[in-house]
Design goal:
The chain is of the alpha/beta class and 205 residues long. The chain has a domain of 111 residues: 3-Layer(aba) Sandwich (Rossmann fold), CATH 3.40.50. 28% of the residues lie in helices and 20% in strands. The protein is built from six helices and seven strands; from the N terminus they run H-H-E-H-E-H-E-E-H-E-H-E-E. A seven-stranded mixed sheet has the order 3-2-1-4-5-7-6. Helix 3 links the parallel strand 1 and strand 2. The radius of gyration is 16 Å and the shape is globular. The model has no long low-confidence stretch (mean pLDDT 90).
């Protein structure tokens, strides 16, 4: 989708915005697999209104959230301000498919992506994968939550669930194609809901 489409969805109330902090991310932090001691700096790709970013800042991480939707970023900034986290949680507007970024000029210890890359069409998905490589270094972690399903398994069109015409998804194994050359990839337990969701924890070699 284009930025204006996301802007409209956020204005009307985006469905995913009601879910709050990702349960899988929370479990990784609470179990100690991801900690501010080992991964102090975080980049939240497609941060939306900042629920995950603010949660991580509350746990002691230094977080930068990036999105291309002005309304989402405005609400994310307000969320961080309300939590008193302006110094440890900042938000920037940028295009993750751009070949370079002045706003994102450093590498990070941890990147997180909740269904951002899988929502991009082919060429843009490859460009975003290059951004992930650019913003990481050996030892960096990358948490990836996506929809992973063969398109042929989905109905042509459906409402209230995934379909071929209305939704984007990654093909099973595409995470290896996009990131396997530079990352070790661990598939985490699949989320209990929604159908076809998958998550991975990648480590940059």
């Amino acid at each position: 989708m284009r930025a204006w489409q996301y802007q409209l969805l956020y204005r009307k109330g985006a469905a995913w915005d009601r879910h709050g902090v990702g349960a899988e991310l929370r479990q990784l932090v609470e179990s100690g697999r991801l900690s501010p001691r080992d991964c102090p700096t975080v980049l939240d790709l497609g941060c939306g209104t900042g629920a995950n970013a603010v949660y991580l800042a509350q746990q002691g991480f230094q977080v930068t959230g990036v999105d291309f939707t002005p309304l989402a970023l405005k609400r994310a900034g307000e969320r961080a301000q309300a939590a008193g986290l302006e110094k440890s949680c900042q938000f920037v507007q940028d295009d993750l498919t751009a070949p370079s970024s002045a706003a994102l000029s450093e590498t990070y210890d941890l990147l997180i992506d909740y269904s951002t890359i899988d929502d991009l069409p082919g060429p843009d998905r490859l460009a975003a994968a290059r951004t992930v490589l650019r913003q990481t270094r050996p030892g960096s972690k990358f948490f990836l939550w996506c929809f992973s399903v063969h398109k042929a398994e989905l109905p042509l069109i459906a409402f209230g669930r995934m379909s071929r015409l209305l939704h984007s998804q990654m093909t099973p194994g595409e995470e290896q194609t996009l990131f396997g050359d530079a990352f070790d990839i661990e598939r985490l337990p699949d989320p209990s809901r929604p159908p076809h969701a998958a998550c991975f924890l990648l480590t940059r070699r």
